[in-house]
Predict the 3D structure of the following.
Amino acid sequence: MKKRIVFAVLAGLLLAAGCSGNKSAENTVGVIMPTRSEERWLKDGSAIKDGLEKLGYTVNLQYSDDDIPTQARQIDDMISKGVKCLVIASIDGSALSNQLANAAAAKIPVISYDRLLMQSPNVDYYVSFDNYKVGGQMGEILIQGLKLDQATAANPVIVELFAGSPDDNNSVGFYQGAMDRLKTYFDRGVLKVPSGQIERTVIGTLRWDAAEAQKRMENLLSAYYSGNVVLNGILSPYDPISLACLEAAKAVGYGSTPGKPLPVVGGQDCIVASCKSILAGEQYATVLKDTRTLGAATVSLVDTLMKGGTPTGLDTSSYNNGAKIVPSLLLDSVIVTRENLMTAVVDTGYHTAAALGL
Ligand code: GAL
């Protein structure tokens, strides 16, 4: 009797182990985010993980410390562990072709998350915001904040320009969208860039590194703004870059010297520190790309693929990654200023009032 019970318990344990082993292999989704050190990717990672877990999937979520070989290794590791779908937010969009080929060989669908995976035919879907429109909003922020429609060529508005990481395809959309929106003001001579640094490759910020941007801003201020020239605005593609540029400007008296108000600066990602800065009247605005919506869209796409379905309603013309047009799901973003921050950010629960110190 005793023996029989022991046997039954053992058999039960083995069965349970076997089942859960199979189940987790069948059910696992690999999710890879570029870094833990930026607020948004933490939000993205948890939105996807929580959403997928609620649907019963097992999630292997990894962060790559902004290190390309680490990211490549993590993907290879997930493939060898038998994940059934991969969601990848790349560091360098062109650096993962071997891993993507391995995924394709193992018949694992790949979703390019937020940043487009480039130069590879082995990218199945792209889920992001409309990056060109986001760039347009960055331009719009300067048009509103600097009242460019009232400016004249006799008294031009002075700005400097910053772009995102050159190895991130999103930087192209942000830059192009912003510059197209601002073109008419440059053409009319009401907007000027004293440094002459305008090309995306010249104004880029590798790995979106705020410290690098701050150094560049400091250099620009000392090289081109030593006389009476006052910097009125900064095109910034990312909140930490905006805050770093504001620091550099403050360090040379902006915001505390008569005739030198803080420059008008936009941004992107709606991070807590920038929301606080906007409420304090320093950073002028940001672009909110709701990571919860992006996460939910991704979860639903993964769910469709895991069930063997075919996603519908995708954009099949906008995003060519150099090897193919990648079917895309593109969401809308929102400009956030002091006027709508409470309704757009706090009331929607994106950040709590307490997180913003309210
Ligand atoms: C971009 C992303 C932005 C911002 C930036 C820095 O790819 O679209 O929202 O997060 O990376 O992480």
About this structure: Residues 2-27 form the longest helix (26 residues).
